[in-house]
Amino acid sequence: MSEVTFLEAIAQGLRDEMRADPTVFMIGEDIGTYGGAFRLTAGFLDEFGPERVIDTPISESGFVGAAIGAAIAGMRPVVEFQFIDFIANAFDMIVNFAGTNHYRWGQKVPLVLRGPSGGRVSGSAFHSANPEAYFNRAPGLKIVYPATVEDAYGLIRSAVRDENPVLFFEHKYLYRRIKGTIDPQAALVQIGKARLAREGRDLSIVSYAAMLHVALEAAENLAAEGIEAEVLDLRTLRPLDEEAVLATARKTGKVIVLTEEPLTGSFAGEVAARVSEKAFWHLDAPVARVCCIDTPVPYSPPLEDFYLPNADKVVVRARELVRA
Amino acid sequence: MTRKLGPLHPEDVPAVESLAKSTLPRERQLELYRYLKLNRLVEDRLTNLYRQGKVVGGLYSSRGQEAISVGSAYALEPGDVVGPLIRNLGSMLVRGVSPREVFMQYMARGGSPTGGKDCNLHFGDLARGLVSPISMLGALIPVMAGIALASKLQRKGLIALTYIGDGGTSTGDFHEGMNLAAVLGLPLVVVAEHNGYAYSTPTSRQMKIKDLAQRAAAYGIPARIVDGNDVLAVYEASRALFSAARSGGGPQFLEVKTFRMKGHAEHDDAGYVPRELFEEWKKKDPIDRFERHLLGSSLAAREELDAIVALLQKELDAEVDFALASPMPPPERALEGVYHERVEGGVA
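^ inputs. structure came back:
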């Protein structure tokens, strides 16, 4: 057990899996000699050699396609996107090829597609994306989005071992801001299971990734007012742990879904729809979505702060729900 | 004489009657003939089934291009992997796909290779070295480069073969895949079928260059151009390129000049293609040419070839009947197989 950052936990999880399984290899831009734009793969080239840490031309669709082919042929590729925004360039390969492959002809594609996501770093429109909603409705993919060091470590290892294409999003705001301990001997964190991050009786905040920390901050502030918020960390978005979502909704009767993405067409909308559909008679107030505004991610800090949800915005909505 | 009839004039292909020199023994040449005929006869049957309303969805033909699929796939070694496109039925037949599988698949039957989940030639089977395509052209270039990458990492010594049409070479995936395969030195062979039209769009609207092989040159990939209606030329060139790829020469590119003898699919009457082109290319039909070669070189007698065809027809009668009598899939099967479920404690 040692204390590491969120970024180090992911790197360690990948290292452990590469040591354990010779079919695991990494492919992406500048991940070898340079060690990745965020230095996540620093030292990997020395340890695993150029055949398992493969630098590519700037061709997201090309190297995702190659990873799919290698996965079909028995390897376990881990693709790094330099920024997750560039996953858009590989959309066809991921949605149409990887996502449909097993359904269409029974051939599995064990593949991890990972990269730094999320805002609050003045990355502007093309270095701040949260693309989960684009992929959530694509059958055949799994989507994992951890919020803690422990989960980042446990889930990246589960992702590598999964037999399906897994999108693994790493919120870059968390990379070096949070620390925790990882235990290589502990059981892996299962994909598809949410985690109750805080117990409460008055309302539920359902969230994940960087917004999970905003939810916890809001819950602290609400507690000072005597409002006890329950916080659910989804950890995996697809397959969604619907039971956990409905359980907290039935318990408190008031639900905020808090996510870092434009409101319209958001992943939060899917969660809200399921709560409304399946826990309606337990609700005391409408399901609330606290998301970003419907704009590209703006650059200047005051604009981006306005764009993003924060604890204050959550507290305001929570008070409305509780007093409704 | 230069005539501007269309994007790809028959004169682009050397108008020689004799085929390329080949050391293939008689028995194997007869086997090639059998596959060529099988390819065409299966498609003829499918056309009939389509007109009877038995085929579900579109029907795509490789008429006039059979020598490319058959000749190239015939040069593969066991263990090699091929990613065929919609006009590469011949490659699939050579790799062991049965006419029954094809009929069942085109008629969306429950017992088809995909159980009714996907259409036409969209199926694969790794045991026979077959990867299923998706409809987006160009996508198989990077994916098959990945098959080649795995072969390299696993020291398997196998090669990956895939196909592209003239239109498909306009896609980003074609270029990304070619470039990636080149810089990583992967054992990938791309056979580019220059057949004049991408749906209704002539090659002249697809590119300003004359030969698809020029695309390969841009990536430092060795390329050859052969007559795609000469099965022996395709076979011999494929064999040479496969050998180069297998022995560490990196990706290889084979452009084959040919002509699409039907519309994009069965519903398309190809009214946009000048009739003279069809008439001229009909004279260069790859199966007729090969037949004349076999007879003219005394490799086979007429009766021998007729006997091969008669046997195939008999087999196809039975396979069509079997497929027609097969049930459609149970509706709830639509729910199955989105994910690969790992069996706990077992080897997935």
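Chain B is about 40% helix and 10% strand. Confidence is low (pLDDT under 50) at residues 1-6, 344-348 of chain B.
thumbs up if we can close this ticket
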